[in-house]
Design goal:
The protein starts with 12 loop residues before the first strand and ends with a strand. Helix 2 packs parallel to helix 4, helix 5 packs across helix 8 and helix 7 packs across helix 8. By secondary structure, it is an alpha+beta fold. It has one domain. It has 10 helices and 11 strands. The strands form 3 sheets. It has a 6-stranded mixed sheet with strand order 1-5-6-7-8-11. The protein is globular.
């Protein structure tokens, strides 16, 4: 299949029986990306929310291009459906609250469900950004043989970002690394572009003030939110970047790779950039090579197993 000049959906490959079927499947996902009817659980975005999402979309092409990726064209605010939890069944609403779910990328429908934080536009922006980075990640699907690939409905994922699925589709290797990478990249996007989004200015100023009072690990603070506690009193809550344990493990990996390979990397950020290119382009070979050079033969496979999600 010829290398595309533009990426017209979040799906890069659909492994099918013929090039014609793959092209038909990719056209299907491109159409889905651009046709986004409102969902039954969705509420309208406020003007500030809409302006914030548009700000993210304005800067994301430059961000992913810097990591050697081809940006997705045609993504709009309509692809991010803001959930009105009052419209959900009680058990679904409870599940979202207990699991602290902020959003979900639905690659099959080329959309994302976002649980907005009504008290913090900055937290909402981070939730949209996390799913937007999943949108921009490399996704390859495997068309199952019992239906036409053009429907897209009978395709299962083979690759999502850094993640790799086994043939039985029961294990998602490197899942923890993938989520940690997305969140670490979100922090870098925030640092580079959020000051250029006017709707976030007041919350960014507040976060900056709180970070200045913290002796260490101030960059872990993603947002500062005022919420009413169970007692009825208002309290200040510090929101950290998500996937803390996974990020800490990933950071240790980056530190060790850099320390052992200073002849290849000028900084730890260069190691992260290597991983980011794998997330956005699907090219894992260089990551596998440096992993095995640093930790020994078989270490890349072991890493995938240790950071997998079993279904």
């Amino acid at each position: 299949m010829e290398k595309p000049l533009a990426r017209e959906s979040g799906i890069v490959r659909v492994i099918a029986s013929s090039p014609e079927e793959e092209r038909a499947a990719l056209r299907h996902f491109s159409k889905l990306l651009r046709e986004q009817p409102a969902s039954s659980f969705e509420r309208a975005k406020t003007p500030n929310e809409l302006a914030t999402v548009d700000g993210l979309l304005q800067h994301i092409p430059e961000f992913v291009t810097a990591y050697g990726a081809l940006p997705v064209t045609g993504v709009s605010a309509a692809n991010f459906h803001f959930v009105d939890t009052a419209r959900l069944p009680d058990e679904e609403r409870d599940r979202i609250a207990q699991a602290n779910i902020g959003g979900l990328y639905d690659f099959r429908n080329q959309s994302a469900a976002i649980v907005p934080d009504d008290r913090s536009l900055l937290v909402t922006a981070h939730r949209v950004l996390h799913e937007l980075l999943h949108f921009e990640s490399f996704v390859a699907l495997q068309a199952t043989p019992d239906a036409a690939a053009a429907t897209g409905a009978t395709s299962v994922p083979r690759r999502i970002g850094f993640s790799v699925f086994n043939k039985a589709h029961t294990r998602r290797f490197f899942r923890d690394f993938d989520e940690a990478m997305i969140e670490m990249l979100a922090a870098r996007f925030d640092d580079k572009y959020f000051t250029g989004i006017p709707t976030l200015t007041s919350e960014l100023d507040r976060r900056k003030a709180i970070r200045g009072l913290v002796a260490r690990a101030s960059e872990d603070i993603a947002a500062v939110v005022s919420r009413q506690g169970q007692s009825g009193q208002w309290e200040t809550v510090i929101e950290e970047w998500r996937y803390k344990a996974e990020r800490e493990r990933l950071q240790r990996f980056i530190d060790e790779v850099y320390t052992a390979n200073t002849e290849e990397f000028a900084s730890k950020e260069d190691v992260l950039a290597l991983l980011a290119r794998a997330v956005f382009t699907g090219k894992l070979l260089d990551v596998a090579r440096i992993t095995e050079k640093t930790f020994g033969p078989g270490s890349f496979r072991e890493l995938g197993q240790e950071t997998m999600l079993a279904e």
